[in-house]
């Protein structure tokens, strides 16, 4: 017995379904890329003024949140965290 051929309409439906899936995937990737551009504002302190420990710890929490949300890479996270930890003074 010969195999039944697929109809032209079915091929069109399959192609349209694949095109919609590709468009949806591209839209999702674009949204992720836009979210990934969110970055931390650089720490700027006036000359001769130090940030308080509470401000530094709040900044550490912020970079942890960005890393968990995959908005910054591990390398950026480690670099910023090391910079902040170096600024904390222990009395």
Counted up, domains total: 2
Low-pLDDT sequence parts: none
Distance between the termini: 87 Å
The helix-and-strand class reads mainly alpha
Number of strands: 0
Q: Tell the overall outline.
A: rod-shaped
**Radius of gyration in whole Å, from Cα?**
25 Å
Compute the number of helices: 3
Characterize the largest beta sheet: strand count, sense, and whether it forms a barrel.
none
Report what the structure shows.
The structure is a single chain. The protein is mostly helical and 91 residues long. The protein has helices at residues 8-36, 53-68, 74-87. Helices cover 65% and strands 0% of the residues. α2 packs antiparallel against α3 (74-87). The radius of gyration is 25 Å and the shape is rod-shaped.
Provide key terms for this protein.
single chain, 2 domains, mainly alpha, 91 residues
Write the layout of secondary structure elements.
Elements: H1 8-36, H2 53-68, H3 74-87
Helix pairs in contact: 2-3
